[in-house]
Amino acid sequence: MAHTHIPVAHTLPWVCATVWLDAATFGTMGVGVGFAVAAALWCQTQSPSKRVVCIQGDSAFGFSAMEMETAARYKLPIIAIIMNNSGIYNGFDGETWESFLQSGMHPCISLPANSLQPGVRYDQMAAMVGCKGFNVTTPEELRAAFTEALATNDRPTIINVVIDGMAQRKPQDFDWLTKSKM
User: Which of 34, 58, 99, 125 is the most buried (most CB within 10 A)?
Assistant: First the structure.
């Protein structure tokens, strides 16, 4: 029998455990909602005034989105913020997406492997489990949605933040990651 695990305790410096865990910069995707469920269960019984905010991209959310049902079932007030750029790393705008589809080739050939369908409303997943979701496109809408999500303390909330898929990523430069003595 094979056992697979990630020994993060051996690679991450733990200064204040249970406050911040970032697996994304170590190449792990899709664990955000699962981590959020575990953290929210702890907060629910040990520190009810604390809130869990799970910030991840649309691609990472796709790996474990159905865990929002678990969060709803246990009435965990997780705030899931999905940075939706319609892609893995970079996405495409609707016009570019349509140009791929109009190429005459089957979409599995014409669409780049890093593309996700533009305009996906991840916020609508909240309704299927009796929760509230928000689709935001401006900082003001995000502020209002986050304020309302903070006021909700008996169920999860999903905030779908639509961002420009064609924008370039800012290079990652974390002292703790790039200048490590590991």
Answer: 58
Compute CA distances 133 → 23, 70, 97, 112, 166, whole Å.
25, 16, 26, 29, 25
DSSP letter at 76?
Answer: -
- Which is the CATH superfamily of the domain at 31-167? Thiamin diphosphate (ThDP)-binding fold, Pyr/PP domains (3.40.50.970)
pTM of the model: 0.78
> Stretch 55-76: mean pLDDT, rounded?
93
pLDDT beyond 80 at 137 = yes
Give long-range contacts, CB 8 A cutoff, 24+ apart: 140-149: 146/79, 146/81, 149/79
